[in-house]
Design brief:
Layout lengths: L5 H4 L9 E2 L1 H8 L3 H9 L6 E3 L2 E5 H16 L1
Antiparallel strand pairs: 1-3, 2-3
Helix pairs in contact: 2-3
Length: 74
């Protein structure tokens, strides 16, 4: 068996890392597909690629929203 970090072996002790699909992000932001992919392409919204699938960590979406709110307030 390959070496795995303790957090992987004991997932119940690690914080949950939820990954969202593009359609889920579209629904949460009430944006179209092209707009979400533009955010991903420009690096405004972080994501990971798993094979051919694009996934957005929930914390990345939260960070994006927080940053936008701070920009609007300034």
């Amino acid at each position: 068996m390959a070496w795995l970090p303790p957090a992987v072996l004991h997932a119940e002790t690690a914080p949950a890392l939820d990954l969202l699909t593009v359609p889920q992000v579209m629904a949460r932001l009430q944006l179209g597909r092209s707009a979400v992919y533009d955010l991903l392409r420009t690096g405004q919204l972080a994501s990971i690629t798993l094979g051919r699938a694009r996934r957005i960590p929930t914390h990345a979406l939260t960070d994006f929203i927080r940053t936008r709110l701070e920009q609007e307030a300034a």
